[in-house]
């Protein structure tokens, strides 16, 4: 059995291959039971969350992710997401690998957003605004750059120094990135806006979105959290990774549904329908598209299989 560290997991999941692997998995007959989602009290701190996410492709692979999300871990200089992925054979049940869960989650989350952008963002998109400076920010910048010809990256965070630090890291990876302190002005310039925050109040206003913008909402993973306002929802063609997940967990969908701003039939498609060609995605250059991601177990399974194949020498690279 292979045990992959954070660094080994990162090297085994190049974004182009990972995006393609997730696309194939969304087209497959992968089985995804409802995930276990348990909120856990942490005395004196924000509540933590335990996630158990099983998935399998019959006769192929079986996997389950065990993940703990501790929002206040930044106070201890620890990552917010800590966990592991257990990958097994779908033919024998034999354990094949333990994959580091934090890196797997970060990379598959970014890759899923980039996959959605392949269908929803304008092909000529050049400017991306990254809202948030956590672990996902650099992953999202790298992944979106695979599917669209992005040339300029704006980074906004609640603290300008952190935004500058993230943009400096992005420049170190070869991206033309700058920190910004005016979120509204930056949003007005962006072709793609990607948000990965723990915000409980809307950050992106619909009035800021120019025609043709693609809004990628990755954070706000609880019903009480939100990254976009009602006007952004009203102006957008709305897409989700899975209807079942987004309608129950993501505040950017849950709250508009509850208030009547959005109806379930207003959600144009989920990612499987885009991947299978059942919905064309963006149909006009002036459409504003909104994609809400809360994470799906098949994304982890696709990533774990790819990581195992790289690490075991079944694929080169």
From TrEMBL:
NAD is among the record's keywords: yes
Keywords, ordered alphabetically: NAD
Family: Belongs to the ornithine cyclodeaminase/mu-crystallin family.
Protein name in the entry: Ornithine cyclodeaminase family protein
Species: Neorhizobium petrolearium
């Amino acid at each position: 059995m292979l045990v992959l560290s954070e660094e080994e997991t990162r090297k085994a999941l190049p974004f182009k291959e990972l995006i393609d692997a997730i696309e194939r998995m969304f087209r497959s007959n992968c089985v995804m039971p409802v995930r276990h989602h348990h909120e856990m009290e942490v005395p004196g701190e924000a509540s933590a969350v335990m996630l158990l996410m099983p998935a399998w492709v019959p006769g192929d692979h079986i996997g389950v992710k065990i993940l703990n999300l501790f929002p206040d871990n930044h106070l201890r200089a620890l990552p917010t997401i800590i966990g592991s992925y257990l990958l097994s054979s779908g033919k024998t049940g034999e354990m094949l690998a333990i994959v580091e869960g934090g890196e797997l989650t970060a990379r598959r989350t970014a890759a899923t957003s980039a996959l959605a952008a392949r269908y929803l963002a304008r092909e000529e998109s050049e400017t991306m605004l990254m809202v948030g400076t956590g672990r996902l920010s650099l992953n999202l910048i790298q992944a979106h750059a695979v599917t669209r010809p992005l040339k300029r990256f704006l980074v906004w965070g609640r603290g300008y120094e952190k935004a500058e630090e993230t943009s400096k890291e992005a420049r170190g990876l070869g991206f033309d990135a700058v920190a910004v302190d005016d979120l509204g002005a930056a949003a007005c310039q962006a072709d793609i806006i990607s948000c990965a925050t723990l915000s409980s109040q809307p950050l992106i206003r619909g009035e800021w979105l120019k025609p043709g913008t693609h809004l990628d909402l990755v954070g706000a993973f609880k019903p009480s959290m939100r990254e976009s306002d009602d006007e952004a929802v009203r102006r957008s063609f709305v897409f989700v990774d899975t209807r079942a997940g987004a309608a129950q967990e993501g505040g950017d969908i849950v709250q508009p549904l509850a208030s009547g701003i959005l109806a379930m039939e207003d959600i144009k498609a989920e990612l499987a329908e885009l991947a299978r060609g059942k919905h064309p995605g963006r149909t006009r250059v002036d459409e504003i598209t909104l994609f809400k991601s809360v994470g799906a177990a098949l994304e982890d399974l696709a990533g774990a299989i790819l990581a195992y194949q790289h690490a075991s020498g079944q694929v080169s690279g």
